[in-house]
């Protein structure tokens, strides 16, 4: 009998110590100010655009971790951050045991690491045009087993006619005359709003131009899609109207970007 009593007391003590340890661990996690990472199932999104599409499709409740750069919608502030498509800890993702990880198609190194760990992922193509947004919505909806139709009905029609008369613009992406060529999402999106990129015939995504080239193109306006205000502009562009756009909207291939472009079109 005494041996049974000792065994019972030993087991009870072990359980109490374990419970105390879990409590202390949870308290430390809460004190660190970081959301606790749920484990098992759910979705990890490593690009802001994919995160926004998931929420717009009504799958926000499935998202258990997002990239460090995800800022919309407000709910993402309460979701754990876990790097991004190019600087994510694959082991940390593995420990979450997600049902799916959405990442950039160009993040090949991370794709290989996740495949080696047996973590399911979807490489979402990088959008170079506004039309690509519709394709990415359809892809993510199919992976999640959702109907994309309700969301698509609330967006401007795919392939909607672009305004015949366009306002020519120097598109400012960053300081020191960083701009965009014709092979970029920003340039194509602004075309839908009736804004013609003065460098649309340049076979590049983003590049640094010169004062002479920007002035010689004789833009009608300046469209600034950058986080900072100010910066150098050549004398040839002084006095032009400057339209400042939210880069978190106009540089991300999301449903929000399509709606914003439609509104901008009405203001030009």
The parts where pLDDT drops under 50 for at least 5 residues are 4-38
CATH arch. level architecture of the largest domain: 3-Layer(aba) Sandwich
* Overall SS class: alpha/beta
* Lateral arrangement of strands in the main beta sheet: 3-2-1-4-5
Shape: globular
Write a structural description.
There is one protein chain. The longest helix has 30 residues, at 2-31. With 268 residues, the protein is of the alpha/beta class. The chain folds into 2 domains: 43-153, Nitrogenase molybdenum iron protein domain (Rossmann fold), CATH 3.40.50; 167-267, Rossmann fold, CATH 3.40.50. The protein has 10 helices and 11 strands. The protein is 40% helix and 15% strand. Helix 2 (48-56) links the parallel strand 1 (43-45) and strand 2 (63-66). The strands form 3 sheets. Strands 3-2-1-4-5 form a 5-stranded parallel β-sheet, with helices on both faces. Helix 3 (90-96) packs across helix 4. It is globular and about 55 Å long. The chain has helices at residues 2-31, 48-56, 90-96, 108-117, 131-144, 149-153, 185-192, 211-216, 247-250, 255-267, and strands at 43-45, 63-66, 80-81, 100-104, 121-124, 167-172, 178-180, 195-197, 206-208, 221-224, 241-244.
Task: Quickly list its features.
5-stranded parallel sheet, 4-stranded parallel sheet, Rossmann fold, 15% strand, 11 strands, alpha/beta, 10 helices, globular, single chain, 268 residues
Write the layout of secondary structure elements.
Elements: H1 2-31, E1 43-45, H2 48-56, E2 63-66, E3 80-81, H3 90-96, E4 100-104, H4 108-117, E5 121-124, H5 131-144, H6 149-153, E6 167-172, E7 178-180, H7 185-192, E8 195-197, E9 206-208, H8 211-216, E10 221-224, E11 241-244, H9 247-250, H10 255-267
Parallel strand pairs: 1-2, 1-4, 2-3, 4-5, 6-8, 6-10, 10-11
Antiparallel strand pairs: 7-9
């Amino acid at each position: 009998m005494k041996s049974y009593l000792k065994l019972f007391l030993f087991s009870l003590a072990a359980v109490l110590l374990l419970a105390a340890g879990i409590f202390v661990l949870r308290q430390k996690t809460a004190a660190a100010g970081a959301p606790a990472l749920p484990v098992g199932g759910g979705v990890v999104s490593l690009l802001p655009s994919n995160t926004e599409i998931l929420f717009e499709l009504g799958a926000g409740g499935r998202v258990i971790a997002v990239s460090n750069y995800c800022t919309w919608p407000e709910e993402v502030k309460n979701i754990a951050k876990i790097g991004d498509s190019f600087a994510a800890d694959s082991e940390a993702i593995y420990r979450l045991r997600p049902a799916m990880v959405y990442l950039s198609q160009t993040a090949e190194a991370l794709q290989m690491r996740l495949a080696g760990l047996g973590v399911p992922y979807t490489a979402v193509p990088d959008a170079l045009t506004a039309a690509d947004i519709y394709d990415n919505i359809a892809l993510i909806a199919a992976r999640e087993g959702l109907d994309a139709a309700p969301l698509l009905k609330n967006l401007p029609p795919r392939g909607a006619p672009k305004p015949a008369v366009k306002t020519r613009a120097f598109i400012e992406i960053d300081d020191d005359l960083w701009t965009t060529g014709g092979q970029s999402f920003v340039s194509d999106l602004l075309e839908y709003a009736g804004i013609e990129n003065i460098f649309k015939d340049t076979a590049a995504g983003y590049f640094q131009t010169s004062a002479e080239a920007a002035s010689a193109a004789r833009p009608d306006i300046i469209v600034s899609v950058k986080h900072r205000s100010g910066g150098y502009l050549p004398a040839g562009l002084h006095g032009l109207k400057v339209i400042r756009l939210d880069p978190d909207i106009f540089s991300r291939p999301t449903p929000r970007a399509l709606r914003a472009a439609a509104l901008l079109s009405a203001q030009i």
